[in-house]
Amino acid sequence: MTEPLLKDKTAVITGAAQGIGFAIAQLFIDEGARVVVADIDATAAGSAADKLGGSAIARGVRCDVTNGDDVDAVLGAAAESFGPVDVMVNNAGITRDATMRTMTEEQFDQVINVHLKGTWNGTRKAAAIMRDRKQGAIVNLSSLSGKVGMVGQTNYSAAKAGIVGLTKAAAKEVAHHGVRVNAIQPGLIRTAMTEAMPQKAWDQKMSEIPMHRAGEVAEIASVALFLASDLSSYMTGTVLEVTGGRFM
Question: So which residues are the catalytic ones?
Fold first, then answer.
């Protein structure tokens, strides 16, 4: 019988109290990891950790990813509870959709800060620990919006495109230290957020997908597992589209 893919690994996942982040945390635990659920909502993070199995395998920690000290604290909590971080998943994100004409500077800054600065904080802080140990995998969540641009998302599309550039640059910096950095670009994934969109918008997006269905959070989690594990040991700086073929 083969061993779990992440046996005895310590993983930190931001924005993991719900949605894609929670699905990743669940699958990582199923594959032998111990997980720190980092989320801006401390109560939700704790509740998620309880659902995942409690303190022996999961810990919830409040974290504002735009604050470097918060990210340091989460990585410290991981080391204290389970050991130095082996896998970092930068998943935390928000949306503040509006057309460029109506978008405020605050809405632009909020999205750039959470997605792009947050991913930069998570990548650089985790990489600093991993390079000393000559091993580690970092997985950054971009989006199809960072490839094609979406109306009403000049902030989000810019941030998600920036994550691709950040991933590639960081991958080059730390590859010789044994640290891998890769990204995922999800397309339309069925979550509470996407299911709340107007039916017309949903139908338009569905019409663009050759597979004629939305993706499920588990389908993003399985790709994150691949990038976090030794299955992808010769991959770094890559961007994997998980879109059902949308905008090939």
Answer: 156
